[in-house]
Automatic annotation (TrEMBL):
Principal subcellular localization: membrane
Listed name of the protein: Membrane protein involved in the export of O-antigen and teichoic acid
UniProtKB keywords: Cell membrane, Membrane, Transmembrane, Transmembrane helix
Membrane-topology annotation of the record: Multi-pass membrane protein
InterPro entries in the record: Poly_Biosynth_Transport, Polysacc_synth
Protein's cellular compartments: Cell membrane
Transmembrane domains' residue ranges: 12-36, 48-71, 83-106, 112-130, 142-164, 170-188, 209-229, 249-270, 291-311, 323-347, 354-374, 380-401, 413-431, 437-455
Top-level taxonomy: Bacteria, Bacillati, Actinomycetota, Actinomycetes, Propionibacteriales
Amino acid sequence: MKTIWSFLKNSGIFVLGSVLSRAVGFLMLPILTAYIPPHDMGYYDLSLAYLTIVYEGVFMNIWVVVLRHMYDHEGEDEKARPIAGGLVVFSGSVVCYLSVALVVWLVGDFQYFWLIAAYGLMVSVSYFALYVCRGYRRNLEFAMGGVIAAVVVALVNIVLLVGFGWDFSAMYIAGIAGFLAQVLYLEARVGIIRRLKRSDFASISRRSVWSMVRYAIPIGINAVIFWFVYSFNRVVISQVLTLQENGLFAVAMRWGSILALVLHAMSFAWQDIAFGRSSSDGRFFGRASTVYFVALCGAVALVLPWVKLAFPFLVDDAYERALWVVPTTLIAGVFSGYFNFVVNIFYAIKDSRAIIWGTVVALVVNVAGVYPLIGWLGMQGANLSMALAFLFGTLTLHWILETKIGYRFNHALAGLGLLLPVGATVLYFQASTPINVFVGTVAGIVIFAALWHRFRDPLRAYFRQRTARSS
């Protein structure tokens, strides 16, 4: 029960930050879709897709390694040591990143190239600061940093797009400003750099740095492979279809961020719990995985009716066709989010190398299927290919966990859970908006009542205990 409360508490903090930041992002949809045509939105989204593979490959997600090593230490002074080691690796990655950017600039011809490069660098700095913040268990500051970034991004976009009539380059500048504001806030509140002492860097050995690099390399390779499952589809849409279609797909993916809200919050809370569990606790990981998957399915089923209701009010008519891509985007997000959830189990048991097998399977399935499926089904094919890729990749990871730690996933319960978003999708396409909202409201009430019936006694006991302590 203590684990459940820890998960709910941390999820609540992360959800609060995610809700506020996503709310700001959604309020920007009418402005972005009104001032940026689908073709330009497609170029912006495609540039970020290419950028992602560069910074994740070069920086190797070193921030994840730093977080994992910080969880191995209790005192704040001790936590500074892996930060110092991580900064050494990060600094080397910055040099490599800028070198790659210079070469690409010399041989290529890309619109707003250095804005794109600066965006990628600030994303990486922001990730490092955010994960260090989590390593210090400063979850509230972590969440508020995201809110501040979202507000700054929105304000800069409004000023540049509406006030000065800029083109889509405003989105790059707004992103850079948002990440910078986030980093400055975290430094002011948490003191990430201020906590570091000269002795922390003096204690760094080649062996410790190499140990972090060795741990990071599989994570970086996994991130690059993951790109071919998640972001490569946007490249194919631009090739097989058009940049305009990719712009429509990008807006549909923004609606997928509704699910990402739940995914990120629960994933961060899950990391806090999983990284502290024993590597032999296979039954716990199996139960948690099953519950997580079913919860994601339920979340999609509940969200879809409200998406159909809100879409016309938040998106310009030029992007109307994106409405019909949202359901499959969310279903693909279920498999993507669950795959990442299982990946965190491997991080928890310190076996990041095994993750590659699951991502390689996902890569092969997606690369083999994405071209014919997009040619056959258009943008829907991109989501179907992604869902199948993550499904087969997840089954591979399940098999590895079963052999390593006795992991047991309830496939029957997961199959029943998957019927929820499938049924909601059928309703989304076949029924009117009022019927969708009515069914979604009734389903939400039933689910809330069931959860209240299941957890009301533990909740009452918990709050009685807290009240007794405070008095």
